[in-house]
Specification:
With 189 residues, this protein is an all-alpha fold. It is built from five helices and no strands. Helix 1 runs antiparallel to helix 2, helix 2 runs parallel beside helix 5 and helix 4 packs antiparallel against helix 5. It is rod-shaped, with a radius of gyration of 31 Å.
Length: 189
């Protein structure tokens, strides 16, 4: 087994065995105490890091994709409402001679299409998941590239699917809400 600890322990054992059995026995006892203390320290560190790792895992699995999906839904709703209000204001301004409506119409100018914002937020979600997965894997497993690749692939797949699902549902619900708001505004005006 390729372990530096085992290799150095065996070197200490062979060197101390040349000096006599009592020295070899003391050396092995000291090594065993040292390994027990290392184990205690590792367990204590795992206990201290458990809350942080759990928080990072919950961000990876649900919080980041859910919050990003909700933000996309709200942004799409606001963009839809502002676009429709801008169109209605331009119609009112054109019909009424364009007096004081021009300044208000400038407020509802061209905005960034929602799909550009979705791409930016999607890239952000992927970066956050990637970084948090690497850090979490490093805390739990140390330098293990195979486990790191596996966890990155698994977490990215689940997070992107969660993000797409939540963003789709929230966009549909909020756009239905926006349409009903706009119908209320159109009926009232």
């Amino acid at each position: 087994y390729p372990s530096n600890l085992i290799e150095s322990s065996m070197k200490v054992l062979t060197e101390s065995a040349r000096k006599g059995p009592k020295i070899a026995a003391r050396a092995l006892i000291n090594i065993s105490r040292y390994i027990k203390e290392i184990h205690k320290v590792n367990e204590r560190l795992k206990d201290l890091m458990a809350d942080i790792v759990a928080s990072m895992k919950s961000q990876i699995k649900f919080l980041t994709p859910a919050i990003a999906g909700i933000v996309i839904g709200i942004t799409t709703m606001i963009t839809t409402i502002l676009g429709k209000l801008g169109n209605q204001l331009s119609k009112i301004s054109a019909a009424g001679g364009g007096g004081s409506g021009g300044g208000l119409l400038a407020l509802f100018g061209d905005s960034i299409p929602p799909f550009y914002f979705q791409v930016v937020v999607g890239i952000y979600v992927i970066q956050i998941i990637y970084i948090l997965t690497i850090v979490t894997n490093g805390i739990e497993n140390g330098s293990d590239p195979l486990s790191q690749r596996y966890m990155v692939g698994k977490n990215l797949t689940k997070a992107v699917m969660t993000y797409v699902f939540i963003a789709g549902v929230v966009m549909i619900l909020f756009n239905l809400l926006a349409v009903s708001i706009l119908k209320g505004i159109a009926a009232g005006g």
